[in-house]
Design brief:
60s Ribosomal Protein L30, Chain: A; 118 residues; 6-stranded mixed sheet
Length: 118
């Protein structure tokens, strides 16, 4: 038995989110890459909240997050904001690596989340 795949915000190159079964997959980068790292991370966390709400999930249902930073020296700022954002007792599995990102972008998150039961 196969589950239907639902794609949201489909473009030629990517979908804003892909839902399969009770799992969501999506990527977030800052809407305004002109911001410094604190501004970009804050934007991305806010965008994640909005995406989770739109697909029927929330922060407590994050399963895994892969974080890409253009400079690992920005890790302390990321961790400060992340620690305040993740609900206590609901931290997802997480990896954080340095990567070459598109010009201006300082952080990119790849997320997997469980959807709420309907």
């Amino acid at each position: 038995m196969t589950s239907e795949i639902q794609r949201i915000g489909v473009t030629k190159r990517w979908s804003d989110a892909v839902l399969h079964g009770h799992t969501a997959y999506f990527v977030e980068v800052a809407d305004d890459p002109q911001q410094p790292i604190r501004g970009q991370v804050s934007q991305v966390l806010s965008q994640i909240d909005a995406r989770l709400a739109a697909i029927g999930s929330d922060r407590t249902r994050l399963l895994q997050v892969q974080i890409f930073l253009s400079d690992l020296a920005d890790g302390p700022v990321l961790n400060e904001l992340w620690d305040a954002w993740v609900p206590a007792g609901h931290a997802p599995s997480r990896a954080c690596v340095q990567a070459g990102l598109a010009p201006g972008y300082l952080v990119e998150l790849v997320l997997t989340a469980a959807l709420k039961d309907v």
